[in-house]
Predict the 3D structure of the following.
Amino acid sequence: MKDIFFCPEESNFYANCIENLVLRNCEQSESIVEFGSGDGSPVINSLLRNKFDGVVHGFELNTSAWKTANSTIDEYNLTTKYIINNSCLFQASQPKAKYLIANPPYLPAPDADIYMPLLFGGMDGATVTNDLLSLDYENVLVLISSFSHPQSTITHAKEHEYMVKNFVILPLKFGYYSSEPKVKNHIEKLRNHHMAFYSGEYYFLAGVLFQKNQENAVDLGRELTQVMTSL
Ligand SMILES: C[S@@+](CC[C@H](N)C(=O)[O-])C[C@H]1O[C@@H](n2cnc3c(N)ncnc32)[C@H](O)[C@@H]1O
């Protein structure tokens, strides 16, 4: 299990965001694509707690995580609702879907040689998240960390014609992966350049629903920036 992402607080928050920002808005049998399924627990838990007629197509590069997810999916008879590929979404032919969802790799570091290289989010932590916002899905739910250059993501989303439809914030303590000295020291440097925001042991994790621009819709981008840069 050591090489599978493990942070129950974060995974539970992601599950709640999936339920409140995505599943409750799904009308008919919508299709959802997920980047980085991990052990599958967030989607599995949210499917068990909600009525959802569609299919979630997950992508997970870590083979151990993918195997664990599949055995839990089997156990709960969700094989027709949650199908995970052991591959990278960016390199696959991307399935059509109304929603793209992810708790993406967002750790900033000088390079990917960290405890879990698949959690590397580029030098500023926002690279994978911003790439997900370039895939042209109509609705995108992503978790964004306040120490991963949040403004770059909000700006990138705007440039790709997304507005912030809704968001939820969780104050989170630096955990096992973000406390690794190589990562933590890099985050400190980013803070000096106003690219990382945290206070003592705490940072903010936001569950953000982006939606391609719609006329007359309210864009909460400014409010999100204010909160994420307030620490
Ligand atoms: C922060 S973890 C989230 C896991 C799970 N969704 C959760 O919230 O518990 C990010 C996951 O993305 C996976 N990942 C990283 N790069 C990937 C890629 N290019 N394609 C697919 N999965 C990737 C990692 O292996 C890891 O399991």
